[in-house]
Structures are given as structure tokens and as C-alpha cells.
Specification:
The complex is a heterodimer of chains A (122) and B (107). Chain A is mainly β and 122 residues long. Chain A contains no helices and 11 strands. Chain A is globular. In chain B, 0% of the residues lie in helices and 50% in strands. Classes of the chains: A mainly beta (122), B mainly beta (107).
């Protein structure tokens, strides 16, 4: 059973960098699939942030591209998100997830972490 | 980017009802559409992908249809555990996007 678990600070100050890690168990990231980050502001809908392959190939939502970096550490079987210059608008529950396909990053998401709330506030 | 219109935003229904949720695209996406269910405080769960393929373990009362620009999620006989918010997602065009959501509440 594939399981994902997000971790990181729940509170980030404005203008600083949000950093989260997603630990994967039950499946080796090196074996394939794309892995992504999705966020959901309180009471609102879902927004895809970006995805990464085990080789390190990344794809970012153009709306966030200038501020986002996603990286992978296959030795630890985890991948990470960094979002720079955050504002209150970046307050959201951040989910990590696995895409349902092995050949492309444009896919549905079949396994999700439980999500972690990150609040941007001074 | 592809614009998605999901309707209704709120649906009041009773246990046993048949309910339908619509997702309309600004341009054709073939069958590259997924549906998710999200309960309060929980992550979304995949119900349907490729517009009509039921994810493993999902009850058969859920079904999806459509292709091109118009898609529908149907729950044939609403159960108490189905009261939740439902989202569609297109994965045909970059960036992949989600609908605004439909909350199914108890009437």
C-alpha cells in the first residue's frame, strides 16, 4: 500500500520560504511515476503546484513557477517543495500525491498524503 | 489554460436520491477527466479516471460519463457516506486544473 506523509513547519512568516517534505512508503520513487504537490486554501478549491519524476525532471504551474522548486531524494524515498516569497495568499493545506501514470506528469492523482496546513503570518 | 465550470456548486439531496454533477470544459479534452470525493479535513480520494473508469475499491453506485467538453458524475443511490464535496480534474492540457467543487449536502 502506497502511503505519503507531508511534514514541515505549520507557520511561515511573510516573504520567507515555505519548505515541505513528502515521505513515501510502500513504493520506491525510483521505480517510476510522477509525484506532485497540490494545495487548497481554506474553504476553497484545489490547485496543482508542480510535479517531479525520479530523474529530477520537474513541471510547475505557470502561476507559481517563479517561486517554486520541487526536488527529489531517492535515497530517502522522499520529495520536497520550496515556495519562496510567501504571502497570506499562500496559506493553504498542502498535499503531496502520486500520479496515476508512469509516462507523463499530466495525470490524475491516485494516492494522496493527509495534507498539512501551512499558515503564512507574522 | 482550460476553463472548467462545475455545477451546481451546492446540491441538496436525500439518502437514496440519484444525483448528477456536471463539469464543462472551455475546450475539448477527449476523456482526460478525473473525479474526486473530499470529506471535511481529509484529502481528496480518486473516484473515476479517464472520464468513466471506476478506481479500484470505489462503489459501483458511482459512474462517470462524457467526452470532449461535457462530463457528468452520477451517484445512483446516495448513501450517508456520500455527503461530501466532489471535484473534477482535467489532465489533458498543461497546467492540469480542478473544478471549483460541488458540495453534496443533506436535504
Amino acid at each position: 500500500q502506497v502511503q505519503l506523509q507531508e511534514s514541515g513547519p505549520g507557520l511561515v512568516k511573510p516573504s520567507e520560504t515555505l519548505s515541505l517534505t513528502c515521505a513515501v512508503s510502500g513504493y520506491s520513487i525510483s521505480s517510476g511515476y510522477y509525484w506532485g504537490w497540490i494545495r487548497q486554501p481554506p474553504g476553497k478549491g484545489l490547485e496543482w503546484i508542480g510535479s517531479i519524476y525520479h530523474s529530477g525532471s520537474t513541471y510547475y504551474n505557470p502561476s507559481l513557477k517563479s517561486r517554486v522548486t520541487i526536488s527529489v531524494d531517492t535515497s530517502k524515498n522522499q520529495f520536497s517543495l520550496k515556495l519562496s516569497s510567501v504571502t497570506a495568499a499562500d496559506t493553504a493545506v498542502y498535499y503531496c500525491a502520486r500520479t496515476g501514470g508512469t509516462s507523463h506528469f499530466l495525470y490524475y492523482f491516485d494516492y494522496w498524503g493527509q495534507g498539512t496546513l501551512v499558515t503564512v503570518s507574522s | 489554460a482550460i476553463w472548467m465550470t462545475q455545477s451546481p456548486s451546492l446540491l441538496s439531496a436525500s439518502t437514496g436520491d440519484r444525483v448528477t454533477i456536471s463539469c464543462r470544459m472551455s475546450q475539448g479534452i477527449s476523456s482526460y477527466l478525473a473525479w474526486y470525493q473530499q470529506k471535511p479535513g481529509k484529502a481528496p480520494e480518486l473516484l473515476i479516471y479517464a472520464a468513466s473508469t471506476l478506481q479500484s475499491g470505489v462503489p459501483s453506485r458511482f459512474s462517470g460519463s462524457g467526452s470532449g467538453t461535457d462530463f457528468t458524475l452520477t451517484i445512483s443511490c446516495l448513501q450517508s457516506e456520500d455527503f461530501a464535496t466532489y471535484y473534477c480534474q482535467q489532465y489533458y492540457s498543461f497546467p492540469q486544473t480542478f473544478g471549483q467543487g460541488t458540495k453534496v449536502e443533506i436535504k
